[in-house]
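Handout, page 2. Input:
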Amino acid sequence: MRSVNKVILVGNLTRDPVLKSTENGQPVCTFGIATNREWRTRTGEKKSLPEFHNIVAWSKLADKCFKYLKKGKLVFVEGYLKTRVFDNDNGSKSFRTEIVIYDMIMLDRKGGLDTDYDDTFESDELSHMEEAMRFDSDNSPMGRGQLKSIETSIDNL
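Output:
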């Protein structure tokens, strides 16, 4: 049976992007996006509920996000949900749900950004999505040990 794991968000950055590298030199950029769910009550009062999302970009897309995005900017991102499990400082398991993006479009051109940039960025051949699918397979030639190593590298960034 087929399934779908796709996330599309339009929201504002809650913090400046942070760029780090894995042990093997792979760039990874993390930042937050806030979205708002709005509705009206029966009395017509407008309500709003914010939601905060953890975003991860890899490779060239990570470099672009770090270079062009800043706190408060409006952005479109597309990717998939990934929940990581890791041991926290107390020795118990912690879970972190992130959106691993493979597409980003800057929607807010205010703030003095250079005008010679391309505002659409896609990651290289969706390589990380393909890698994630390989890692999730029990028949992976890479094995679960390498996935654990990569997740540990990300946790230590």
